[in-house]
């Protein structure tokens, strides 16, 4: 064999080794990319699941709090009604001591009656005063 032939053989085997090495590098790179994509997609899926579970928990908590608020608002309304009732009872209890008596029949007038009447009346007070002057009992109106 000549030196050129050896040199050609050697260069061919070197090229073959280079192709083998680059083929191994390409395969390792492909495997690394596939593993990276699997890990990335798995982590994204797990993050989505975790966030979805967290969202469901928060929605359930919001619904519970909203329900509790509705119950508390109803309790507040009931307590306000009870307070008004007790205030009325308290006023009625102290009214006789202060010389107050319940209104006589016809003494309380409604504003709507004056607005719907055909009379030209300036105010409720003037209408009540005018009605009392025509009535035989002072301080008592005959407007129903």
Q: What is the secondary structure topology, with strand pairs?
A:
Elements (H helix, E strand, L loop, with lengths): L2 H92 L16 H6 L7 H11 L10
Notes on the structure:
This protein has 144 residues and is mainly alpha-helical. It folds into two domains: 3-102; 104-144, no CATH class. Helix content is 76%, strand content 0%. It has helices at residues 3-94, 111-116, 124-134. The termini are far apart.
Q: Could you tell me the mean pLDDT? A: 77
Q: Give the structural class.
A: mainly alpha
Query: What's the domain count?
Result: 2
Coarse morphology: rod-shaped
Number of helices: 3
Distance between the termini: 139 Å
Number of strands: 0
Provide the gyration radius in Å: 48 Å
Range of helix content: over 70%
Largest sheet: none
Strand residues, percent: under 5%
The run of helices and strands is HHH
| Poorly predicted segments | none
Give me a quick take on this structure:
With 144 residues, the protein is mainly alpha-helical.
Keywords:
144 residues, rod-shaped, mainly alpha, 2 domains, 3 helices, 76% helix
